[in-house]
Amino acid sequence: MAFVHLHNHTVFSMLDGATRIQDMVNRAVELGMPAVAITDHGYMYGVPDLALACDAVNHNTPEYKTWSHDKAFLEKDRRDELVEPDPEANPREHAQYVKDMAMWDEKGNIDELKPPLVIKPIFGCEVYFTPDETLARDHKPELYHMILLAKDQEGYVNLMQTVSEAAVQGFYYKPRVTLDNLRRHAKGMICTSACIAGIIPKYIDRGDTEGAIKWAET
Question: How much is the pTM?
Fold first, then answer.
């Protein structure tokens, strides 16, 4: 059974993380994990580094290199310049090449043959959730941790909008995310209850099971 870490802090989580993103990706690959997430506090500054680190791995396989090379030449009508890899010296490259040529002859493109990812980047953020919809600034805010993960492209855009609104409109002590913010940008995002600092764990820790259930349902 595959295992994936969905709650990770990196050097972009000040005073709460020291993990270098490239090292984290390399270690996940070493352990055979199919994906890895970053969920830095309040912001998404590590997302470009995670994308580049995963690309460095995913684009370095013999299959991907061959597919990418074949695609570039075929789409430029330069098939005659392609050289078939030696099946004995380079069996993986040769297998990909054969599939590429067959599909090109059949469909005129090889997009469906793009090799699967070695490791998938999951973009997330551990936001500071507040139940105070007014975003009052006359007292220290009530804040709880909450993990948000982008499920797809739309979710990634919504995650960026959520985090941006929290930083621009909701900042006071921390960038604050409200229920209204979450409801408007919920599509394509996955929410988890985070750590002991999450609102559901906090209610459980206080012995208020009904309150925890209410917030879980919310």
Answer: 0.90
